Amino acid sequence: MSEQPTTPVIDIHGITRSYTMGDETLHVLKGIDLQIHPGEFLAIMGPSGSGKSTLMNILGCLDQPSSGEYYLDGADVSKVSERDLAKIRNRKIGFVFQNYNLLKRTTALKQVELPLVYAGVGNRTPRAQAALAAVGLEQRMDHLPTELSGGQQQRVAIARALVTEPSIIMADEATGNLDSRSGQEVLGIFQRLNQERGITIIFITHDPWTARHTRRLVMLRDGKVVADSPIENPLDAATSQRPSEAEELESIFQTTYYGGKKEEYA
Amino acid sequence: MNPVEVFSTALHALLLNKLRSGLTMLGIIIGIAAVVSMVSIGRGIGDYINQQFSDLGATRLQISSQAPTSGFTTRITPLTSATAAALANPVNIPSLALVAPEYNLSSTVRAGGRGIGMNVIGVTPAYTEAYSWQTQPGSAFITQADVENTARVAVLGTSTVKRLFGSESFNPVGLQIDIDDLSFTVVGVMNRRSSALGFDPNNAVLVPISTAQTRLDNARERGGSLRVSLITVLARDKDAVAAASREIRTYLRSAHGITDPANEDFAIYNEAQQLRSLNQISSLLTLFLGVIGAISLVVGGIGILNIMLVSVTERTREIGLRKALGATREAILSQFLIESILLCVIGGGVGILLSYGIVALGNQLAPNFGLSVRLSLAVDTLILATGVSSAIGILFGLYPSNRAARMRPIEALRFE
Q1: Which positions in chain A touch B317 (Cβ < 8 Å)?
Q2: C-alpha distances in angstroms, B404 versus A100, B5, B133, B323, B398?
């Protein structure tokens, strides 16, 4: 993180988002300013209801802000038509969701080809194959989601996000449904994509362990950014070891007594 | 997204839910099959009626005695051979081409041991032309000489041959049969004729009219002329039928001394007129059957609407995902619309095949019920039905498709 290019890939000013529910107006985002530069790998954290998903939807052009300015690659996207938003989602942004969101009974290859279909790309198979190879699934191209493990399904989803060569990948709790080993693998893939290809990655999570693998942490609370700082010594998913349940409990037991014998939790 | 992509995406989605797609199509299949086969059946019946009557002849008029409608006069001047001769005179009736009187009576016909009660028809040589009914090759018919000589000769219909001799293919020419204890020589057999409206014309025994009037019965009037049962006439051509009918009426009124139409003691049947009214009935029948079919088609369409709505709800997340991946409103709209159109068009195609089967089955079974109905697939209805099923696909698919297209990606993605 020595030098940063002058144009941020994402530049938002005073973004608000409110929903009308009956007579009440719910202000979810209350004025967010954020600049994200190309090649950054950041985590957006916050408790439930802090507005982090809403922010991701706006950043991902799935939703539009109630007010404020949003420049994506220098272009104002806060007021573009729905049709152009679809094009932006297709070309510039890749999504990875917590529950993978794969199409049922569709092979991995076809899943990955889908964004290219909407992009109107003709010769899709080589590109989809390359994307699957990039996540280590070259042996699983003809598998259906039901024939893949959770980690593999999420890797298909990453390949799908990757295939249009977007400048940003948005991952919403992308490791939330995975066991810790698969989660590590997926985190590793994101780190690699960020380092080797310079793709900007935005990770929405509420897991501090996951966040420690990114390089910048943005904390949200009640619709506002309450902290924004670089992470010192980010963890490397290839070597990091998530503390076991027992170790985590160990640290808790030093201060809190939950009842019962300590050995029972070992 | 090009049309081929839209098409293959839609087809893929339909194949994912084979059972549901199949059941949805069933509505359209039944609807289309109902419309096409009902109309085909209706038309087949119409054609059958038409054909029956064209067999009978469009230029034909039949004149018979009838009690006057007024009811005041009981005196009926009978139709006689003399009347027939007078009608045959072009001075009296210029529009006629042929006059064929006949005299009908019930007799016991016997060949070998079997005696059967039958209608015997006394005819003239003109009979064959009047009814466009010929004898079998190599068979003779009743000649003018037979009529003049009151000859004891008979011509049989195929059903009569079967009843008397046990087999339709039996050749009875030259054999003797007894009609009311008088011996007759069989001189010919008529061609087989299709049965008209449940009545079998092949059940006939034809003899010279004079023989029927004098030897089998006593049809002599006080004036000496011989009564006839029916006078069949042919007008010169189709356009002359109305004129012929008028001329006959005028002639018979003056010959029978009738001034008040209510006292008319004869009736003139015009088969063309009956044909027209029957045609109206059959078109009405076709319309009625078509409407029933159309109702089931609409029900099928509502089935499509229902399933597409369910499908949109069920696939909300998929729609959200597709939008997140860059699908535009139009792409989603066309995907769902094509799905619904595919359902209808495939369903329509199967329905057409099914109706083809129904028509073929109908043609197979009709002879078993003694009907010589020939059904043919109503091609115009078929084209219309295909158009209608596509239209139903668009119409009933538009609302769910539009609903899917207008979903907001985040809400769709979050949908549980």
Answers
A1: 101
A2: 21, 18, 69, 10, 10
**Does any domain span residue A30?**
no
Q: Which structure tokens are listed for A247?
A: 């170790």
Contact B400, B305 (CB under 8 A): yes
Q: With an 8 Å Cβ cutoff, is A146 touching chain B?
A: no
Q: Does A226 touch chain B (CB under 8 A)?
A: no
The whole domain housing A221 covers: 38-61+81-265
Between CA B125 and CA B115 the distance in angstroms is 27
C-beta atoms of B322 and A60 within 8 A:
no
User: Which of A54, A63, A117, A170 would you mutate first to test chain B, the one with the most B CBs within 10 A?
Assistant: A117
Q: Which residues of chain B from 320 to 339 reach within 8 Å of chain A, CB to CB?
A: 320-329, 331
Is A9 contained in some domain? no
Low-confidence spans in chain B with pLDDT less than 70? 1, 52-57, 71-74, 195-198, 272, 369-373
Could you tell me the residue ranges of all domains in chain B? 3-54+276-414, 67-264
Give me the number of domains chain A comprises: 1
Chain-chain contact of A62 with B410 (C-beta, under 8 angstroms): yes
CA distance A87 to chain B (A): 6
Check CB contact of A244 with chain B, cutoff 8 Å. no
Q: What are the helix and strand counts (H, E) for chain B? A: 13, 9
Measured over the CA atoms of residue A202, residue A206, residue A210 and residue A216, the dihedral's sign is positive
Q: Do A57 and B317 touch (CB under 8 A)?
A: no
Query: What is the pTM for the complete model shown?
Result: 0.69
CATH of residue A123's domain is 3.40.50.300
Q: With a cut of 60, say whether residue A1 has pLDDT above it.
A: no
pLDDT in tens, B22-81: 988 888 898 888 888 888 888 888 887 777 666 556 788 999 988 887 766 667 888 998
- Written as one string, the DSSP assignment of B221-286 is -TTSPBB-SEEEEEESSGGGHHHHHHHHHHHHHHHHT--SGGG--EEEEEHHHHHHHHHHHHHHHH
**Are B2 and A120 inside 8 Å of each other by CB?**
yes
Chain A residue with CA closest to B5: the answer is A117
Residue located via tokens 């293919």: B169
Euclidean distance between CA atoms B332 and B326, whole angstroms: 10
Q: What is the DSSP letter of A165?
A: -
In a domain, A237, yes or no: yes
List the one residue out of A160, A65, A162 whose CA is nearest residue A112: A160
What is the distance between the alpha carbons of residues A136 and A130, in angstroms, rounded to a whole number?
Answer: 10
Q: Is residue A12 part of a domain?
A: no
User: What are A204's two structure tokens?
Assistant: 């929405």
Residue B194 half-sphere exposure, CB side, CA atoms within 13 Å? Answer: 16
